[in-house]
Amino acid sequence: MKLTILSGAGISAESGIKTFRDGDGLWENHSITDVASPEGWRKNRALVLDFYNQRRRQLHEVEPNEAHKLLAELEKYFELQIITQNIDDLHERSGSTNITHLHGELFKSCSCNNKNLIYEQKKDINIGDKAEDGAQLRPFIVWFGEEVPMMEKANKLAREADIFLVIGTSLQVYPAAGLVHEIKDDCLLIVVNPNETNFGYGQRAVMMKETATQGMKLLFDKLVDLA
Fold it and tell me: Are residues 38 and 99 in the same domain?
């Protein structure tokens, strides 16, 4: 049976990673345009690099939480795929093996002239750090206004799912939020999020107003029973 997960910032928040939609979120002291857009990059590369360098340093200090670990455990029972809006590697560190990152990865960098030139990046990116084509390295992040290259794969995974589990996202960021509209008519849709989640599916979804960790503790055995 195919279980596909769409994870968002809420699951990472429980490991201590701030979410930009919270009151104390990442973007509080910067407009999104300044630090997460091609325009911001052209305007002030140093600011953008510093912003993501701080996020990268923080990622070294946090660990996967119980929700990440329980999702990884489900690979024993399902043909499991994780589609994540998160740019951290907490799913990987918890043991999950089939992960599609929609918005890029913080521990990678790429040429600002060629996104196919991708490098592992565990340390800071500095002005003057170059890709092999001679261009400045930039964070391997999909910024607002940029194409989401993994979206086609994500749509396919959603369409193939027998169970589609949404966890830690309020489904407000597109195109990722549109994935719930790709699932089959007979696909079981489960949404775990402590905040209001509005996506036009009415009574179809099994709604759980829980944190990611608590939701997974409640769901795990029930999902295994369905496998």
Answer: no
**Could you tell me the pTM of the whole model?**
0.92
pLDDT in tens, 174-209: 888 899 999 999 999 999 998 876 666 556 789 999
List the catalytic residue out of 68, 91, 101, 103: 103
Please tell me whether residues 109 and 216 are part of one structural domain.
no
pLDDT value at 135 more than 50: yes
Cα distance between residue 31 and residue 51, in whole Å:
12
CA 94, chain centre distance (Å):
15
Q: Are residues 135 and 154 in the same domain?
A: no
Please report, for the domain that includes residue 128, its CATH number: 3.30.1600.10
Per the annotation, does 201 bind a ligand? no
**Which residue is associated with the tokens 């799912």?**
161
Sign of CA dihedral 48, 60, 116, 110: positive
91 classed as catalytic: no
State yes or no: 170 annotated in a binding site.
Answer: yes
